[in-house]
Specification:
245 residues; mainly beta; YmcC-like fold; 2 helices; 7% helix
Length: 245
């Protein structure tokens, strides 16, 4: 299963969610104490009203960043279905960019917490599973139009301390209407084709393909990933929006 922990990490960079472990208990994070906040009252949450209109582009809407509710997903790993949740929280403005934290729980908890920033030219991943990236990776360009494509070229370190190289290309290929347990959505479709290379495996590259559906004002509606397991057999993952709280 270690290979798929690696897949999770790298495909999250590509903007595609996946996982392969049993559901984990949701971890409650206690609020900061007054001492932790310098002795005063708890710091108030960041106000989304401070986000300038220049950052509320196509990517902002299709990534669902104006949605404040927690999303529940059905996670299907080779026919075994579990549920997990995801929520985006605005952290504030920094250097003209809007920063967000993406938190996950239950079946999606293995993916950990990510951080993104919204710039005028698109949305970038800056931290994956609490691991800062050497360089921010674009998740979605500001202008969402069919035919747009962008590369992924990143190196991370997996849970065993091995370097993992990810090379891929993402492309917006069209629009589709998608029906899920949460409703029917008009989506843009983003495909991904690439390889993962784990350094402890004699630099053997594993092909990975994926497809993601994003709806404006909602975010991720559906995701699918296909790869090959350590035993050489096909492995598939599908994540589908089940409900919005």
């Amino acid at each position: 299963m270690r290979r798929f922990f690696t897949l999770i990490t790298v495909l999250t960079i590509a903007g595609i969610l996946t996982g392969c472990t049993p559901p984990a208990k949701k971890t409650e994070v206690p609020p900061k104490t007054q001492a932790e906040n310098g002795g005063g009252q708890e710091a108030p949450p960041a106000d989304p009203a401070t986000i300038p209109e220049s950052l509320k582009h196509d990517a902002f809407h299709y990534y669902g960043l104006e949605a404040t509710q927690e999303m529940t997903y059905d996670f299907d790993y080779n026919g075994s279905v579990r549920q997990g949740t995801q929520k985006a929280t605005f952290l504030g403005m920094k250097d003209g960019k809007a920063e967000y934290k993406i938190e996950r729980s239950d079946a999606l908890q293995i993916m950990g917490t990510d951080k993104i920033e919204v710039a005028e030219d698109g949305i970038y991943l800056t931290e994956v599973k609490q691991q800062p990236l050497e360089k921010a990776v674009i998740a979605l360009p500001a202008k969402v139009e069919v035919g747009a494509s962008w590369p992924i070229d990143q190196k991370l370190r997996d849970g065993d301390g091995n370097d993992v190289l990810s090379k891929a290309v993402q492309k917006i290929v069209g629009q589709e209407k998608v029906k899920t347990p949460a409703g029917e959505f008009d989506c843009i479709v983003v495909t991904m084709e690439g390889t993962l290379t784990v350094q402890d495996e004699k630099k053997k590259a594993t092909p990975v393909t994926g497809k993601a559906w994003y709806a404006a004002g909602v975010g991720t509606v559906k995701l699918s990933i296909t790869s090959t397991g350590p035993d050489g057999k096909p492995v598939s993952y599908t994540i589908t929006l089940a409900s919005k709280k």
